[in-house]
Design brief:
mainly alpha, 9 helices, 63% helix, 0% strand
């Protein structure tokens, strides 16, 4: 926003900080519990940032919606209204994400298991920080707006007589609005109007609801069939680029050596007397038993 009072720069920054706190908390907890840190875990912060920023947008949108309800004008009522609208959506998305990643901990691959543990725990912390830390930041930002304070310096923005004749851009940067009045809640966003007036009524039509149920049934049936066709495992060819020498190597290995199985080695970790005939015979017996 052009307004130096209502541009919500600190609010957006705190939303990103909330995601960062979730990453630090989850990584610290997992490292304290002794969970191995693998290189794939380094990708987890980007996932948490995406979900955390999405939750931030939902919270801010619900807060803006509550400002247009005259009967809920005080801060406590507005915050309660915000959580009533936003918490359900945020909770459902968090539960599905956490469930998906914790199911991934059942895999046989240790690196994937560590990645799922770190990321799933980070989603839990992201939810907690959004519901606590970011909610408090919204209230503090609202108090700043109510007192018409500058977003950067938090100093009160006052209208002086000699500023009344300044340009609109000057007033927006130095006073808070072109009208030289303290900041007021904005009108409803056009996208919100679209979903409320057109999108929502369209999908609440009984024929459209029936079509949605049928489409979901077809999707569910296809998903169940797809689950029956899934095979667990990993093809190492998919880990290399298309022009890599690794792909022909694995093709030839499967073509000419697949019948032999994996190579097995036996390592003696102790210092033994190889010159001793008894020791030598023991090693030979061990090799024969292994074969």
């Amino acid at each position: 926003r052009r307004s130096c009072v209502r541009n919500n720069v600190w609010l957006a920054c705190c939303g990103v900080i909330s995601s960062g706190l979730a990453v630090l908390s989850s990584f610290g907890l997992m490292l304290f519990c002794g969970v191995p840190f693998v290189v794939t875990v380094a990708n987890a912060p980007f996932l948490i940032l995406g979900v955390g920023v999405d939750d931030m947008f939902i919270m801010i949108a619900s807060w803006e919606q509550s400002s247009r309800k005259k009967e809920k004008s005080d801060v406590k009522s507005r915050l309660a209204e915000t959580y009533a609208e936003a918490a359900l959506s945020v909770t459902i998305t968090t539960l599905t994400d956490v469930l998906a990643f914790f199911i991934g901990t059942w895999t046989a691959f240790p690196s994937v298991r560590s990645f799922c543990l770190y990321t799933g725990t980070a989603f839990v912390f992201c939810y907690l920080y959004t519901m606590t830390f970011f909610g408090a930041v919204i209230v503090l930002n609202h108090k700043n707006e109510q007192e018409n304070r500058h977003w950067l310096t938090c100093m009160p923005v006052r209208v002086d007589e000699d500023q009344a004749e300044k340009s609109c851009l000057y007033n927006a940067c130095c006073i808070g609005s072109c009208s030289r009045q303290p900041s007021q809640p904005e009108s409803e966003h056009p996208m919100s109007i679209f979903f409320r007036k057109y999108y929502g009524p369209f999908f609440t039509n009984k024929w459209i609801k029936l079509l949605v149920v049928l489409l979901y049934g077809a999707y569910l049936g296809g998903s169940i069939y797809g689950c029956t066709q899934m095979k667990e495992g990993i093809d190492l060819r998919n880990l290399a680029s298309d022009d890599s020498y690794v792909i022909p190597y694995y093709d030839d290995d499967d073509k000419y050596f697949s019948a032999y199985g994996p190579r097995v080695m036996v390592v003696i970790t102790e210092s033994v007397d190889y010159w001793n005939e008894t020791v030598h015979l023991g090693i030979e017996n061990c090799t024969q038993n292994l074969e």
